[in-house]
Every structure is written in structure tokens, then in C-alpha cells.
Amino acid sequence: MPPLLILPGYGNSGPQHWQSQWERVFPEARRVQQRDWEQPSLEAWVAALDAAIAACAEPPMLAAHSLGVSTVAHWAARHVRPVRGALLVAPPDLAQPNVPEVCRAFAPVPRQRLPFRSILVASRDDPYASFESSEGMARDWGCRLEDVGRTGHINSDSGLGEWPAGQALLRELSQPGPA
């Protein structure tokens, strides 16, 4: 598998989160570190992602969760470095009233077609985005949409463990051909 960059969202991903577990499963995985997980800065988060992609020996895979997905969309609107593919999990609708106020600085999220293969994974009961909002993001970004039913925000609370179904989607994206 190519290099794998893990992009957590607001607050980072704790030890039970599927992203943290993937760091143990995939030896080529590296978490994109942010200076401040609790006070996210759009410019700093995009710059950290760009530096991490630039440091990869070959085009990486991206596994983004929540505000990490918003970061990927902003990065793609500003940069042209090659990316092998992106698994975009539970992107927030930053207009939702229960989204933390500090995350609203990432709005508006660019909605242009992404220049790499991608799969957007959405839940039907995500407290930070309606399924219809996720469908719209997938359509605008040119992503295949994967419906994972009622799994909340697809985070530690969802009890996914190492999330084998997500790993299968990531492996699919790492292969040549359409997603």
C-alpha cells in the first residue's frame, strides 16, 4: 500500500478511534499532527497537510475524519500535489447548530470536484451532518458515497474497532482504477 496519512478531526482521535487503530494495523500510516487540536486553524491545518503530502516519497492515501475531511477539501482547492486517493469519513455540515463554534472557521468548505479518487462514508444518524448533506458533498466532490447505516459520527463512540469495512474501502482506493 502507498503511504497513508491519517487526518483526525477536531479534538484529535483517541486510542479507541478507528484512525488510531489503523496506525497500528498499517505500518505505512502516519498521523498528520496539528499544533492545536482544540482550537483548529484552517491555515495551519491545511499547511500541515501540505507538508505531510510533500514529505511522502510517492502519492499518499488520505484517511480523513470529520474536520479532517474539511481540511482535505480546502487543501485540494489550493494545492496540486498528487494524491493516490482519499477515504473521507463523516464530513461535518458546518452550518449545523451543534457543530462546535471553533470549527466554523473552516466554512465555507470548497465544494469543487476533487482531483483524486475518493469515497465519502456517511452515517444516517451523524449528529454533525444530515445524510442529505453528505450526499450533496459526495456529489459535488465527485466521490462515491458509502452508506454505513446508523453509526453516529463514525468515531470511537460508534464501536467500530479496527473497522474492517473501512479498511476494505481504503484498500480498494489504493488499487488502480475507478473507485
TrEMBL record:
Signal peptide: none annotated. GO terms for molecular function: hydrolase activity. InterPro entries: AB_hydrolase_fold (IPR029058), RBBP9/YdeN (IPR010662). Transmembrane segments: none annotated. Pfam families: Ser_hydrolase (PF06821). This is Alpha/beta hydrolase.
